[in-house]
Batch of 2 targets.
Target 1
Amino acid sequence: MKLVLECVSQMLNDPKLFCQKAYISGEWVDASDDQVILVNNPFDESIIGSVPACKAIQVNDAIESAQSAQQDWARMSSIARSDVLAAWYELICQNQDDLARIMTLEQGKPLHEALSEIHYAASFVRWYGEEARRLSGHVMQPDGDHRVVVLKEAVGVTAAITPWNFPSAMVTRKVAPALAAGCAMIVKPSELTPFSALALAALAERAGVPPGLFSVVTGDAREIGEGLLKSSIVRKLSFTGSTAIGKYLMAQSADTVKRLTLELGGNAPLVVFNDADLDVAVDGIIASKFRNAGQTCVCTNRAYVQSEVYDEVCLKIAKKLEGIIVGNGLDPAVAIGPLINDMAVSKVKSHVEDALSRGARIVGDELTINGRVILPVLLADVPSDALIATEETFGPVLPLFRFETEQEVIQLANATPFGLAGYVFSRDVSRAWRVSEAFECGMVGINTGAISMASAPFGGIKHSGLGREGGSAGIEEYLEMKTLHFHL
Ligand code: ADP
């Protein structure tokens, strides 16, 4: 193990950012019983390090110190809170190369994508640092001798459970608005990618985030989750992950009536109409499908292409996929890294085999799996009863479905319990608008595959979740309203 650790540290400008301890109450700690969880590099399954398997009692320590730190933090001036977030933002930018490298090592995505994620992660810290100074309630119009003022107050101690697919951005998208609003936050990162969250905590500490205000507790998901959820001090949970776990956490939150933000699974449709700019559509499809090896919740899961342009779009995509280099994310030539684990690989395999058995065909390279690395797969003529038409694949497989009419495709697009994102490609503004309105989802990309930015609300409806992150909606999730009634 030692050899491996030295190797990771040697890759960083600042080896101290590779933290193998949990950050609780402003201290870097081991598990109370010294147990650890090993973390691997998904590319070659080598062990890159370990993190403490913290115990329930350590979750309580984090909650208690969060409570006392939060009271002082909420009393500070908004400009002082904003300054701390600005310092954190600067440090993230200064250390972007190390943060990206840590991410690629534990998550697998290509280094250039990891670097983009660090920029995206930093943008939340910057945006909410600025937003901290603009929070306000409102005063209602006088009503007879009644006057009403609405104040905004910090929710208090909050918790976040974050996923492995965006190990940094999903941390800052929650922590930055929480801190800006005057809340404390305890983060339980995915056990598969804890080092990105711990590196961000190390930088937050350097930036002057007070001890206890932001803790990162690593360990068994169920044990840490239970500790956070059963506490009445923790007033809110923000979760990004699978719909199944989201529903479980929602049920577990009922007893203490926690506020919830849930960013859950998706099954995004992408629709290309005959009148689309096909090159723009193809670029949008590739970006939205193959980013992060297809492991994003807003990934295109189903691409519907209108009959007249179906063959042309199929050929253009196949051409773009030719010669794409897959492999170790640390290699600058690599465009698609490995999937996160063997289960993810099995799911891709089963979706492809199922589609082929129902009459779909592969255009271009056959399904080629090398460990956890998979060549992108383009499936044409996929029937609507294929598994891939209803289940989220979370891998580099693009199924193309053929459709005839606008009405038909809207029905197909909405035939899912999920409602996170949808995409439409058309040069007809009226059609693009109509289809966007008809989509049952929280976000629509119109002639673009990119729909995430710090200033815009992100989130879904139906089984894809509750609440929004990003934009001013994102900070409201960490604020309570208090209504004051005055009688003159
Ligand atoms: P995925 O299937 O994409 O791995 P999960 O929903 O399983 O997504 O994981 C997202 C986050 O939820 C991770 O941090 C994981 O550790 C956490 N998690 C999984 N199961 C539980 C649980 N029972 N209680 C609390 N957190 C959990």
Target 2
Amino acid sequence: MITSGARTSRDPGNPYSSGRLFMRLWKGYLSQHKWMMAVAFIIMMIDGSTLAILSRMLEPLFDRVFVGRDASSVWWVGGVIFGLFAIRAATNITYKSLMTRISLRSSTAMQADLLAHVLTLDGGFFHENPPGALIERIQGDTVAVQGVWSSAITGLGRDAVSLVALFAVAVSIDPLWTAVALVGAPLLILPTVVVQRYIRRKTAHVRSQAAQRATRLDEIFHGITAVKLNRMEDYQISRFRTIVGRIVKTEVRTAASRAAIPSLIDLVTGLGFLGVLLLAAPQIVSGARSVGEFMSFFTAMTLAFQPLRRLGDMAGIWQVAAASLERLFTLFDRQSTIRLAANPVQPDAGRTDIRFDNVDHSYGEHVVLRRLSFTAEQGKTTALVGPSGAGKSTVFNLLARMIDPQSGRILIGGQEIKALDLGALRDLFSVVTQDATLFDETIRENVVLGADDTDADRLAQALDAAHVSDFSDTLPLGLETQAGPRGSALSGGQRQRVAIARALLRDAPILLLDEATSALDAASEALVQEALDRLSKGRTTLIIAHRLSTVRDADKIIVIDHGSVVEEGTHDTLLEADGLYASLCRLQFTE
Ligand code: ADP
């Protein structure tokens, strides 16, 4: 699993410390928007300073208009105040649209990069990390960091500027009053540090629970038939409720601790106000200070209150984002175990014989292949048979480099596959598997797989040869019929025929067939088998088949047991040898 424990963010050796996370975020996704950010920042500064000017206007309002009884001054004072609100209206709309643009552009860029990176990872990674968790990471975690830069800019631009400007107003009226108002501020430091750590830890927990929630949903919807047939609805719902219950509990705790800082600010501000009142009241009563000065000071301090609270929450916002960023960058740092050759060579198109030479492979502790050696001749059909779990599918995964073996060599046309260009290697294969993987697209799209410029005649030939036309012609929408999620709108045999058409069109020199006909009824099987025979003609073909009837005609049969080759030969020679193959045959025929 890609873990991302909450280390202390100040640990200098921690690659996911707040500082490093921020720098990576800045370099990768924010710095390219720096000009737009600068404009937003300036707009925020204008917005932030309007409040200070507003509070400053209260002094002439009180001292000249109300107390000084100079009615005509109301026009210019009122005009300035209206102007300030008009400016705020304009700045508000501009910065919102700018910030939305920056947030969305950077978070979607991150999503695309993350997807591109994840797609380079090996089969082992996808075995460890369920699809739901990966979806949550790409969608949920990137969105979780989306808000952070808009909050940061809003905070630093508008709130910090208003705060500074409002304090400047306060200091200009009375530095002593200001100092008294701030007397409790140092009390905030320690709780802020403690709360930040707590928030990061809890948020990391919420994010991993969210990944579990996505995984549950993914498993339920993918296994919907099994869920219903086994009456697992209540069980699945209760598991889901448990997970979301945990999310609620943790989120509420996080929110409460986040609110602790603004609450503390409230208390500290209340104390400050009380102090100022006690100090200022006698001065005003004695006439040493004016009512207007006090009102202006009081308003400046009151207006400083909201930005101060928001800034107090900024650390919390950052911690929430940092928890997601840590998960995202942990994933970015995960490298594929498939090591690409430094100077990859192109495969020799004319030679496609396959050789496994003393290949060992294990999944963790579990040894699957033991010094496996065999060859599959070019243009011939080689069948791999053996009990379930013997390691046959692993052979396919190794061949296409979904995983790499612990030791031994795998060669195609005499070249080690490790040395070949990975894309070119995979271009050598057409794969038709038992659970023919179809996408929720039209039948045509499922056959051409993105090659929209496919020649119409070639497509028609492939569709006919694979017996796809037989059924697609009878559908009202023909080839434009949607195949449904994972091809569920088609029958098993139809799905396989679509997969065969795909392979025919792909026209790769090596064909890998995995149990291609095992799940079909006799009529479908005959059609699929005929299509497969056409497909395998002239290609180097490797078949995994449990049903021995389908491999009888293979040029060579390799019997694998416990990860090693125990016998090889043709159907007849193996029957004669009376070993494992013969006993597997006897078992099937008595069935
Ligand atoms: P076969 O195709 O012959 O039935 P496989 O190659 O699929 O066998 O699997 C061989 C063994 O490896 C099995 O015991 C299986 O449980 C194990 N195995 C397969 N894939 C994985 C994996 N990703 N992680 C752990 N064990 C695996």
